[in-house]
Description:
Radius of gyration: 18 Å
Strand order of the largest sheet: 1-2
Largest sheet: 2 strands, antiparallel
Strand content: under 5%
CATH class: Mainly Alpha
Low-confidence stretches: none
Structural class: mainly alpha
Amino acid sequence: MAAFVAVLLCSGLIGAPKVGDFFGISFGAAVIFFPFSYIFGDILTEVYGYGKTRRVVWAGFLSLIFASLMSYAVVLIPPAASWKDQAAYETVFLPAPRIAISSLIAYLAGEFVNSYVLAKMKVYTRGKMLPLRTIGSTVIGQAVDSLIFYPLAFLGTWNVSQVVHVMIMNYFIKVMVEILFTPVTIPVVRLLKKVENEDYFDEKTNFTPFSLK
């Protein structure tokens, strides 16, 4: 959970303010952090089940809200006369409320869909085909996240073609990170199952997001 929350905070506070360029392709720098939250989500759901992962998702959500509020509070503190970096600080740590809210909504929906799909696939496959399940759940969860975030955050500010272009490119980058790290994810899952003596199947789970049971 600590690693999951750390990745979310890095994504929101370090990566989100910057737009990068790689061989002429523009992308939000947060894409180098954010996919790891789905990897951790996959590991948590696979080993401990949807119910415990649900608590972690809510912990991440509340941490993001707290970090966002603290960012605003720190920016609003009047700068000392000798400190000349207030404008730069505002650029980095004062995101537009629309983007912050869009990010929170997309994160919550995407993470819950990712965990739900993985948990259901685990039951249907009787715990087999782990790589297919981790990648498949991320493909669907990241699609939900992207389809919510980019239109909510940028439609009307960017033209439609730009929104679609950035959304598709960032989506494929996120999915590729999941695929590339699958050889790491699988042994971590197996190790945790052995060490924790845990391999939960969500056969009777109540999948509502709004419960901590």
